[in-house]
Amino acid sequence: MKEIIIRTMENKSNAIIITGGPGMGKTSVIKQLSVMGYHSVEETGRSIIQKEIKTDGNRLPWLYKKGFAMAMFRQSLKDFQNVSEKCGLTFFDRGIPDVIGYLKLCNISIPEIIWQAAKENRYNTTVFITPPWKAIYVNDAERKQTFEEAVATYHTMKETYSFLGYKLVELPKTTVLKRA
């Protein structure tokens, strides 16, 4: 297992999270912000799923949930630590607290190292959340959740971020350009 290094308390006001349930438009908004010239960090879960499928790995949410969560955590922590204030505003398609929410949804105990990282590696205090929106929800090769599971994810993320002291701002159900 790779060693996980957590640096002492870091607050990065330029690191802005967009969270919510799967299929609610987060990635589309992140891509639009990137087109507009902002730095962005892609969703770790999706890239891990793609890599695991390509290599016949087992760290997939439908095979080995805890392994998938730990892979997401390691990558999310690395992504956070790699962003500097010099980068300007950087938008994250999910963050470390999303791993806590995922583990809660799976009824898996949350390792202390993840709680510690979420408390000590702080993003901007304002977090944007995409609400459930059935009209845009679709499944794909990496997104196998039902709409109902996506709604449950939204509520769990809302609860998790609030518990960790973040202020949530819900993005409106409108065009991607207006959401960005």
Provide a short characterization of the protein structure.
44% of the residues lie in helices and 14% in strands.
CATH T-level topology:
Rossmann fold
Q: Mind describing the biggest β-sheet?
A: 5 strands, parallel
| CATH class category label | Alpha Beta
Please give the CATH architecture: 3-Layer(aba) Sandwich
Tertiary shape: globular
Number of domains: 1
DSSP strand count: 7
Would you list the SSEs in sequence order as H and E? Answer: EEHEHHEHHEEHEH
The N- and C-terminal alpha carbons lie at a distance of: 38 Å
Stretches where pLDDT falls below 50 for ≥5 residues?
none
What class do helices, strands and sheet pairing give? alpha/beta
Q: Helicity range of the residues?
A: 40-55%
Please tally the helical runs, counting DSSP H or I stretches of 4 or more residues.
7
- Please identify which CATH superfamily we are dealing with: P-loop containing nucleotide triphosphate hydrolases
Radius of gyration: 15 Å
Strand numbers in spatial order across the main sheet: 3-4-2-6-7
Strand content: 5-15%
Mean pLDDT: 90
Textual characterization of the structure:
- This protein has 180 residues and is of the alpha/beta class.
- The protein has a single domain (10-179), classed as Rossmann fold (3-Layer(aba) Sandwich).
- It is built from seven helices and seven strands, in the order ββαβααβααββαβα.
- It has helices spanning 26-35, 44-54, 65-82, 96-105, 112-120, 147-163, 176-179, and strands spanning 10-11, 15-20, 39-41, 90-93, 121-122, 126-130, 167-170.
- The strands form two sheets. The chain has a five-stranded parallel beta sheet. A two-stranded parallel sheet has the order 1-5.
- Helix 4 crosses helix 6 (147-163).
- The longest helix has 18 residues, at 65-82.
- The termini are far apart.
- 36% of the residues are buried.
